[in-house]
Amino acid sequence: MSDDYIVKDIDLADFGRKELDIAETEMPGLMALRAEYGEAKPLKGARIVGSLHMTIQTAVLIETLVDLGADVRWASCNIFSTQDHAAAAIAAGGTPVFAIKGQTLTEHWDYLDRSFMFPEGANLILDDGGDATLYVLLGARVEAGETGLIEVPTSEEEEAIFAQIKKRMAASPGWFTKTREDIMGVSEETTTGVHRLYDLHKKGQLPFPAINVNDSVTKSKFDNKYGCKESLVDGIRRATDTMMAGKVAVVMGYGDVGKGSAASLAGAGARVIVTEVDPICALQAAMDGFQVTTLEDVVATADIFVTTTGNKDVIRIEHMREMKDMAIVGNIGHFDNEIQVANLKNHKWTNIKEQVDMIEMPNGHRLILLSEGSFTQCEPDSDSWEVQGSELRIDPEAAVGSGRNVRLYIKGVPVFYTPYISFPVGKARKSGFLFPEFGASDDGGLDISMPYYLNLAPNYDATLSPRYIHSRGSMLEGQLRHLSEKFVTELNLGYLGNDEGGDDKDKRGQLQALLDQGAITQEEFDTKLRPFAGRDRWLLNVDQRGGIGERWYSQLDYTQVSDIDYFRDLELASLDINSTTHLRKMGLAGYRTEHWDAGVKLEEFQTIVLDLEEPYRQLPRLHLDGRYRIGQWEMALKHEYVRFDHRDNFHDTAAEVPRDRRLLGERVRLDYSLDWNQEWVWGFFKPSAGVKSLAYQLDSEALRPDVDDAPALTVPQASLDAGLYFEREGSAFGFDYLQTFEPRLFYFYSDFESHEDLFDLTATGRDIDFDTSELTFTFDGLFRDTRFSGGDRIDDANQLTIGLTTRFSDETGIERLRLSLGQIHYFAERRVALTDTFSPSQISDADPLLDVFNNALSSNNLRASTAAAQQIARLTDATRTESELAGRVSGQLADHWRYGLDASWDNNNGKVSRGSASLRYFDDKARIFNIGYRFSRMAPQLIDLDANALITENEIIERTIDQVDIGFIWPIAGNWNLIGRSNHDFTNDRELETLIGLEYNDCCYQLRLVGRRWLDNELINTVEDFDLEYDEGIFLEFQLKGLGGVGNKISDILKDGIVNFTRREQLQR
After folding, report:
1. Helix ranges (DSSP H) in 803-891
2. Residues contacting residue 614 through CB under 8 Å, at least 6 positions apart
3. Which of 169, 47, 16, 180 lies closest to 119, judged by CA?
4. Which residue in 432, 355, 343, 435 sits closest to 395, CA to CA?
């Protein structure tokens, strides 16, 4: 048996096989096909991707396809419909299947992707709902350049599919396009999927034949009608044990599904009433002998309600309030759409069994809702945790507990007391206190907060967290979340009044030494030790995304804090926060049509590092981007207008020094291109021609009198991107493999246009550089048409990139090894630069300058020799005839091991310039092991540290990045796991972060206790060890499953520091 499958439990295969044997007798058509065509194998060569409900009946279909000669890989089209024993039976039979009942959306799209991984590629799709077809066609459009299609997800499902497309594109560039070309046809089972196909055909975006199975007589007249006739009554009986004879049942809708449902209920002895808005269907119901009326006429008297329409809001909240006690409500169709379940969330819920809940209405009546529900708690004889109190009340219907003189016992030991508490019970969102959060650090001391959760409505909630930090005082934190039909909003607030200043013992020792030496006064000592003492400190964060499901879109991302050290002092900052330099304040809105995208953005930043300039404010940025595709031709029209503004800070205060004003002004940029994109199974050919234009209108206040306040330039460009695909089969070490060889050429030409009007425009030598920087050279950069980010430079280029890639995939389609190597060959110097350090003529004749700088390297003047080394590096990059050699190695060693290596080699000095390597393990038992390494060679920097309160001398800082990062969560005994992370900087021989802890996880509760030591300084990336401060802390995270949780700071730290931690959390839910 192959291990190429993902099922809940392979041991269920025997049970599934028994049901399969029974089902075969109920599917004579498929069995007749096997008998008649089994030997001929008419489907030989067919490689079928199946995206259909993974049930016992589907399993019979899968085995029929295999018997007829097809190769089949299967994934479920629905996250809830899988019968795990059916999936196990198919997997045990050797057919790859990827389906688990209750799988997440992320897993759903990952499993669908796996179903395509034939060694030779898929050539047929058997679809139900259109997911498989959508995946291939959307991915191919993105590969063709329509990257905006997956940039702004508007729903949770779009987030999952967009992430999976990006993941597959990164792992296998060109895969979607090749797969689209290989697909010979698709069959579609559902109305929704058929509508998708008709829409694609209308737009000219359906590249292969499609069979409409949904409208076939067998499907619409037999399966819909008679399938429901068999399954409906069986499902109600299994859920409720209700005898339906004599009951009044209302069937909403009398299409094919409604007809089958009405017949099913009538056959069980119920008196059936039909509601139907279509007059023809209503007439059919009447002629079949059923009473036809409106829901409002029978809602108060009927016993059973079944929706069959597939529409929205068929049973609304006002209907359910009128229903009789113990009425049964269910559906065959789109549950969340047909019944307003969301409006019941504030009512009392009691879970009866899986997919059956009882809901108490305000009038005391109860409804039986056939849905999905679950409740997790400890076994009755377990002493893992227990709540005791003098007046303890647990209301399972309301999912709320309350009590006086309450004690919490863990393993029989009292660990917490409160005179009164109200808390949520179980997984339902209920208002009440959560258990307190605990932490301790050497700066703030003991840190305790008591969160209170407010379930305000089904679509919004809030959490208020009073917090006490021993060395700083009391503060309040809060979070408000809101979800509407069009917007998702999250608001976070924090306020600490009259900060007591903290107690940084490391800083105290350094300052005491300076005080003893007389270098600082007592007043300076107190000010530097507690710089925020007596001040109010606060945080405001708003994150909102709008336009869900609409052509218009909006986003608000606003963060502001009272001071630069708020996160480091009060948020137990991760290394990511420690290295953050600017906080974003941004709002955007836009509108998309089929060919155009127009929008406006406002953006500014708050800088939270001393002596670092704030980025420019964009007030506003307007864009109008068009894209037209006719056959293989594609035209892109990009227009951008930005007004750049800035708070004018004067860094030089001496009267004789000119004030250093920043440039302000407006920028207009136009980028036009026309591509011809021709793709075949064996390769691709994409010539492109375009023009880029740049124009400014600068404010005259800061300009020198002799400069042009409206510089402009226009540059024509052309490129040719072409590649070939070669394949061969082979075997090694007992394994069969498919090897591809993919040579690629990319030629890029961009005319040289002098940028001299953009340099040295103020009295202090300011250049136009509003938002631009040089991109880091990587393998991906070999095929870019620019070496700059931002919009203030237009490249000059005459270059050819040669790239080679080979891949080795096993028989399941998993890529075990990918090797890529490439280099750019330059036919001219790069005279356009970010600064005007060198003129174009100096770059063209660089030897004299290089001689001068080489002589300066041996100077006794530290500043001169350091500057010379930097200038040599810049000039060499501009004049070299070949780029660094860039390479990439990646793949999957085994089912759970992945590895990657990216590096670039500088053949001028024979050294590695930069690189990264990783080895990662993650499995379905939630075990994690990661080791990563990164290296980036950078010239040393001479900095003046006078601005640092503790240092008063110039130092050379080694800027080379040379770091290793190891992280793991691994079981050690029973339910105990060891958590660890170590991030070490070899350049300065120092630990950036060390973390070690324990996790206990079982059905009753989860406990994490972690000790952590980390660098706590805004100069973390530049300053050597003796200038840095370490912080230390012990943190507790505790969750009683079924009784709320305590603490999330450890989760936040692990999410930032350990790769796959978020996936692990999702797996364990």
Report:
1. 840-844, 847-856, 862-879
2. 582, 604, 605, 606, 607, 646, 647, 649
3. 47
4. 432
Distance between CA 1016 and CA 577 in Å, rounded? 10
Closest CA to 993 of 1016, 977, 1009, 1018: 1016
Q: What angle do CA 19, 21, 24 make, to 5 degrees?
A: 105
User: 778 with 743: CB under 8 angstroms?
Assistant: no
Q: Can you tell me the distance from the alpha carbon of 887 to that of 902, in angstroms, rounded to the nearest whole number?
A: 6
Considering only CA atoms, which of 277, 338, 283, 347 is closest in space to residue 305? 338
Label residue 1034 exposed, middle or buried (CB < 10 Å: 0-12, 13-18, 19+).
middle
Residue 707, pLDDT > 60, answer yes
b (16+ CB within 10 A) / e for 350-371 = bbeeebbbbbbbeeebbbbbbb
- Among 220-229, 277-286, 962-971, the least confident range: 220-229
Return d(Cα 125, Cα 118) in angstroms, integer: 13
Give the largest CA-CA distance in the chain: 106
Q: Where are the alpha helices (DSSP H) in 666-803?
A: none
Task: Tell me which residue has tokens 């001929």.
Answer: 40
User: CA angle, corner 934, sides to 928 and 937, nearest 5?
Assistant: 175
Neighbours of 551 (CB within 10 A): 11
On the question of pLDDT at 69 being above 80, the answer is yes
CA–CA distance, 54 with 58 (Å, rounded to integer): 6
CA 634/CA 145 separation, integer angstroms: 9
Q: Based on the number of CB atoms within 10 Å of its own CB, is 89 exposed (0-12), middle (13-18) or buried (19 or more)? A: buried
Residues 796, 802, 803, CA angle at the centre, nearest 5°?
120
- The answer to whether 172 and 146 are in contact (CB under 8 A) is no
Instruction: For 195-216, give the secondary structure using H, E and C.
Output: HHHHHHHHCCCCCCCEEECCCC
Neighbours of 775 (CB within 10 A): 13
The residue with greater pLDDT, 45 or 399, is 45
CB 1029 within 8 A of CB 1017: yes
User: Distance between CA atoms of 899 and 416, rounded to whole angstroms?
Assistant: 46
Token output for 619: 């007030």
- Rg (alpha carbons) of the chain, rounded to whole number: 33
Contact 129, 108 (CB under 8 A): no
Q: At what angle do helices 28-37 and 56-67 cross, to 10 degrees?
A: 10
Which are the contacts of 870, defined by CB distance < 8 A and separation ≥ 6? 939
Query: Scanning the structure block, which residue is given the tokens 């703030």?
Result: 444
Is residue 262 classed exposed, middle or buried when 0-12, 13-18 and 19+ CB atoms within 10 A define those classes?
buried
Q: Which DSSP category does 613 fall into?
A: P
Mean pLDDT, rounded, for 814-833? 93
Decide if 892 contacts 898 (C-beta within 8 A).
yes
3-state secondary structure 953-1018: CEEEECCCEEEEEEEEEEEEECCEEEEEEEEEECCCCEEEEEEEEEEEECCCEEEEEEEEEEECCC
Q: How far apart are CA 674 and CA 1033, in angstroms?
A: 57
Q: Using CA atoms, how far apart are residues 353 and 456, in angstroms rounded to an integer?
A: 27
pLDDT of residue 933: 96
> How distant, in Å, are the alpha carbons of 501, 507, 508, 521, 524 from that of 514?
20, 11, 10, 9, 10
Kindly report the length of the chain.
1069
Kindly report the three-state secondary structure assignment for every residue of 667-696. EEEEEEEEEECEEECCEEEEEEEEEEEEEE
Q: Tokens representing 35?
A: 């008998």
Question: pLDDT tens-digit profile of 326-348?
Answer: 999 988 754 446 787 767 767 77
